Structures are given as C-alpha cells and as structure tokens.
Amino acid sequence: MRKMAQNEIEEMLDQLRRIKSGGDLDSFKIDQYEKLEMDLRLLRTFIKYHHVPDYTVILTKTATMMVEILRWDFVGIPNLNLEKLESPLLEFTKGDTSLSYNSELNGSDLSEYMDRLGENLNDVLKYHREWERSSLEKNHFIKKMEIVQKKMRFLRYLYATEINGYVNHEKLEYLETQLQFMANNVGQFCLAVLVDVAEFDDDIFNKPPYLLCLIVLVKLEMKKIFLGELQASKLTQSKIFKDKKLPKGFSHHLHSLLMYLKNKKLENFPNIIAENIDVAIDFLLVFLDADVSNHVNNANWLNEIMEKVAAIASDILYVIQKLLPRSINKDDTSKIDICSMRILEKTKDLKAPVESYYKSLKFTPSQFRAVCGLRFLDSLVSKLNEMLKSKSDLDFLMKPLFDNLERELSSLTSILEEELSSLSSIFRDVAKHIFCSLPTILQEIKQINAEVSEIWSADVALKPHYVVEPSKHLPNQHSNPVSDDDEIVGFEIATEKLIQYLTRGTSELDVIPIVGMGGQGKTTIARKVYNKGMIVSRFDVQAWCIISQSYNLRELLQDIFSQVTGSKDNGDKEDILSDKLRKSLMGKRYLIVLDDMWDCMAWDDLCLCFPDGGNRSRVVVTTRLEKVGEHVKYYTDLNFLPFLTPDEICKLLQKKVFQKEDLPPELQDVSLEVAEKCKGLPLVIIFVAGIIKRNKMEASWWHEVKDALFEYLDHESGV
Q1: What pTM did the predictor assign?
Q2: Is 441 found in the same domain as 343?
Q3: Do 116 and 94 share a structural domain?
Q4: Which mean pLDDT values do the consecutive 10-residue runs of the chain (719 residues) have?
Q5: How many distinct structural domains can be found in the chain?
Q6: Residue 290: exposed, middle, or buried by beta-carbon count in 10 A (0-12, 13-18, 19+)?
Q7: What residues make up the domain containing 73?
Q8: Does 55 lie in the same domain as 38?
Q9: Which of 149, 425, 585, 715 has the smallest number of Cβ neighbours within 10 A?
C-alpha cells in the first residue's frame, strides 16, 4: 500500500506538471494546482519517511483533506486520473495502513529525506509569500526560514558528498543521529505549517531560531569529523569551520532542547545512565539559566564554553535517541554506557574553566544592585532561595550549603548593624549638610531649564525654512539639532570616520552603529554629519527618527515615510506603511538615522523596510547598548565613541562658560577639578557650564557646584 501510494503520487505530480506546461489555465486554476502539488509533495515525504510523532494522525488528516479537494475542485479535468490516486488515499483515511515508525535511516535514505524536506521548505516559503498577507512578522519569519533552508541544503551537501562513504560508519553515528533529529524537527514544522494552517500560531513563528540551533549542533559535529577524520579535505582549511560567533539566542534554544530531553519518558532506562544524564542536564540548565553572556566580557571564551555545552547536549541527544523503545539495541548497551560516562566527564571538565573564570573576576560595589542599608544581604539570601526552588533539581545537593551560608550571613548582618549604629550620627550630619545645600542648586537648575526652554522655542520660531525637493527632507525638529557653526570639541576623528563610513566602503546597504553612554555625543556627531552639505547632496533622500524605549512602531514608520516622501499621515496600518516605505526607498540612495535605539526588537521591526539597491545606501544607528550595536551591524564594525580627554574637557568648559575669553588663572585649579567630575561626557559639561556661568568669576561658586551638584547627579542619574 505504501509503495503504491508513492507511485500514484509521483504519477499525479507528473500529470500536473504536464497540464500546467500546456499554458491553458487561468491564474485561479494555477493556484489550485500548485496547492495540490504542495500537499502531494508533503504526503510523498511522510509516506516514505514516517519519523514524526503522531504521523498516522497527520497522514490521515492530509489524505482526507486531499480526497475532498480532488472530488470537489478537480472533477472533470481531462488528462488527470483521479481514481488511481483516490484509492490509496481512501485506505489512509480508514486507517488501514501497515506503516510502522521507522527509527533510523541509512546514509542514502537520510540524504533523500533531507532532499524531500528541502522541497517541503520551498513550499512553506512559497505558501507564505503568495497566500499569506504580508506583515513585518511574516517577513521576518520568511527571512529566518530562508536561512534555515540554505544552511540545511549545505549540510546535506557536506554529508552526502564529503562525509558519507569516506568515514567509518561507526564514527558517523553521532552525526547521523543529530541529522535525523534535526530533519524530523523540520518535518514537524512543515506539517504544522502546511497541514494545520488553522492552528498557525506564535509557536510556529518562534520555530526557525530553534531549528537554527539544531543546525549549529550538526555543524559542530561535522567540524569535529573534518578536523579529526578528514584532515586532508580542502574543506578542513576553508572558512566553513573557522571559529565563528554562535547565533543570537543560541543559549535560549539550547535550553529548550535540554528541557525537551529532560522531560523525555524513556523505557528500559538503566539507572547509571539515567543518573549521569540527569546530573549533566541539571548542570547545563543551571549554567544556561544564569545567562552568562550578561557577565562575561571575553567573547571568545564564552563562544568556546558554549561550544562545549553544545557538545555535551549533542551527546545527551545521541544517548536518549538510542534508548528510545523503538530503537533500543542490546548490542549498543555497552557503547551507550560508555557514552553516558563520557558525558559526566565532559560536564566535570566544563565546570573547571567556568569556576576558574568567575574566581578571576574582580567585583566592585558598583556592580551590585543598590539596596537600602543591609538589605543587600537579605536580597542575596532571597536569590539563593530562589535558586533552590528552580527547575534544576539540584536542591538535594545545594540546600545544606545554602543553609550554612544563610546562618553565616545572618550573623554578619548582626555585627554590621552594631557597627553602623555608631556611625549613624555622622551620617545624619552629612545628610543635613547636603539637604540644606541642595535647594539653592536645584533652584538654579529649574531657572536654567526655563531659560533653555525659552531659547529653544525662540530658535524653532527663528529657524530658517529650507525649500527642498519632495524626495529630500531635513530631520524633524524634535531631534536635538546642532547648528552648523557649532564646534564639536574632541570628536574630530570620530566625525571624519563617520563621513568615511557614509561615503566609502561597500556598494551594498550598510548599517553604521555608533555606541556610547548617554551624554557622550552620539547624537551630536550624527547630526553634525547628517547636515553637512556633502552628505545632503550625496543621498537622494534622508530621514531622522528617534527610537524611544517604549516606541510606537506605526508612528516610527509614519515619521520616516513622511520625511522620505513629504506625504501626510493617512491613517495606514503598520504593514501597509511598511510596504509603502520600502517601495518609496526602492531605487534611491537613502540615509536613515535611527537615534537612541534601546532594543534589538526595534531594529527587527524596521530593517525589512530598508531595501538593498546596491547603491551605497546607509543606515546610522546610535545606541547606548553594545548588544544592540552587534545586532544591527552589517559590514561596519561598532563605532565606539571615546570619552573626552582632560584637555578637551577643559577646552569645552572654557568655551561654554567664557566663550572667547580666557580662563582666569585663579580658576584654573577648580576648573580642572570640575572637569574631572564630568567624566568625559560632553552633555554633562554643557549642563554644568550653564550653571557655573551665572557666577563664573566666583571660585566659591565653582566649588559649591563641584561639591554639591555632582553628588546629587551621581545619586539621581548614575552619571
């Protein structure tokens, strides 16, 4: 029955190709035929390669659906023999099939299985490009799926042409187990998209990154084979297996895989193997739960450690797949036992570098969360208790240690409370002094803010209006503009570099990330270059947009679209605006500045609106967060702004306080002290200069600002 169904499907696909090639069909019929072809290809894959859980239910559902389609939509079409195909399909709908779950594939079958899945992935992409309504989320999904398809096709090529047949079969067991597990997950994904369309949900949109994680595991295993067994291969020395940064979100999806393996219910699971795997999985989950990437500055070290974590996860996957009831083989028992012991050894080996690295770190008080008084210790104990209640199942090992630690911390708290009580009167005196000094300073700040607002309003009213072509627009006025005659002190090199990035380099679309902390001058430099005549004349269109921490995507799209086209807001929805913006930028050399981006998601929402026309278009992104810069960059490396040097600080401070006058000698020392407090940040310098210049000749006023204002700024804003 299975063979007959396969033959009838192949014959039907040939008939459909011949009918379509005749050219006598309207567009509606072509769409119907293509949808039928998709369903037939899917059925063909899973009739022969039935490795997906609940495959009989899925095949029955697919067959039932196809019988209905054939009876209602294709009856009476000449040259299309429906009866021959309908007969085996009806057998599936009755459940009268003798298919059994085939657990393992040989080399040639595995290659063909991946070929079939490649065709099904093509159908998934085609379905979403042609049948589903476009949106930013769908476009992002399609982009990720194209990456999955490309990488899977390449892994299939490496396996079929460079590995299978050239390496002893026993040494390929790990790789083939991972390849089949990856392929089965791709198969489940294709079935969910093409069969359960009505149940298409957010989980499907999140599936491609997980598939990429499985692809990385396969590639790491291939890398081990090439470096060990195929050293003579030219591919071993190519860029394919050079150390590369693991994809974003890899640790998250590796965590999901480990949770899946942890929850697997296995029969005939030997105790010693179960214990070894449980210990390994629990350790890896604790490691991944800790989100080490937030604490590690050495990217190469982290990449190396994550590869070791991935290797252990691959070993666990191999053992569990081998122990499935449908694939258990008594001859493999000793091999699996040895593998489980190796997993435990690898886990112990991984603990050593992690522990050594953390011991080498030197923590300062500023790295700990600030809490009132001794509540920091209470917070620490609370965090330890949270770890005990986590899903890592390590409480039976850790609880005695945490109990001892809690007792020691309680004792330490009592001692520190006694010491602090003797210092409380001193603290009260200091607090009183600060409290009494601050009102004067705060009043000055309020007055300066009022004057700045007044000046800003006047500047806007008097700002000259430029007449430009509809395709060119200067940035909107709410983006902290800098006048063309305003000197940028200390950033001449950074400014010149930005100009080079915008005018030279790749002919493809490039993103230039400018990274620096708040007040460091990112926006000032970007604005200065943005308004330069040579830049304005180089690009067909320009747009400047501020990305707030809680941005509204529709407003961002409308803001950019209005600057690019000069059109007003017509109330279009996000997906329509996105499509309009992309079409309006097609064929134009454009410069877009996305200022103060806080979240990688903002870039993911906007990036598909920026087409690559091969005409040296550029997008500049300013951000305080290095991870955002890494996420958005294309060809240009992160552009980190330097802090101003002491000489540059003094120069800017003198310029803002005294304009063209020289700094009086009697203020030289105190100005250096103020400059040091500004920590190299231009925005702080300008702000402080605005306060100082009200009594700029009084050294006592400089000292009061230095001693009182900066303590307030440190406390309130963390500068």
Answers
A1: 0.50
A2: no
A3: no
A4: 72 78 68 79 78 60 66 59 64 52 71 89 81 68 87 88 82 86 87 64 74 88 81 64 70 83 64 73 75 60 82 85 62 71 83 70 48 55 58 50 66 68 59 53 58 48 35 39 48 87 91 87 90 93 90 91 89 88 93 93 90 92 92 89 79 78 77 75 77 74 69 50
A5: 6
A6: middle
A7: 1-102
A8: yes
A9: 425
